[in-house]
Hints:
This protein is an all-alpha fold and 175 residues long. It has helices spanning 3-17, 21-32, 37-65, 68-92, 95-113, 116-119, 122-135, 157-174. It has two domains: 3-92, no CATH class; 95-174, no CATH class. Helix 2 (21-32) runs antiparallel to helix 3 and helix 5 runs antiparallel to helix 8. The model has no long low-confidence stretch (mean pLDDT 78).
Amino acid sequence: MNWKLFFVTFCSIFVAELGDKTQLATISFTADNVKYKWIVFLGAAFALVFTSFIGVFFGHLMTKFISPKNIKILAAAVFIIIGVFMLISVFREKPEESNKQIIKISNMIKEIEKIDKCRVCFKFNKFLEDNNEILKNEEINIVKENLNKTNACDNCNTEKLKNELLKITADKKEV
């Protein structure tokens, strides 16, 4: 095996990818999907492996039909198009609206925590634990001991919270 070629290729690609559009896109996806960071990692890793496969095994075929200069022009054009789409998606987002919804949910949680049967409800505390990263609220108190199994409440506050959170995630997907 040619270890020198392996090392030079690894270092070149590693340095080239630092701060590159691939890494920036991965950071962007992770920021939007903190709870699913490992899925973003796996998706990015498989994409890099697949694009490397295309580059290695099909790149030489392209140079038979397209000049290296035109390949670079095409790559630059695709890079610009992707950048424009990312900018458009940023300007379409309404972060202040999302923050208002998060604040609304946080306030609902504070009110629910004042209700004794809810504060020790397993379902409510499980919701808080599962969604703590999304809510980004350090004031939330998750109870882990002496929890009552889910109460069969007719007007369950946890279900109201879930519905509010679904609205936020649905709004983000629409954008």
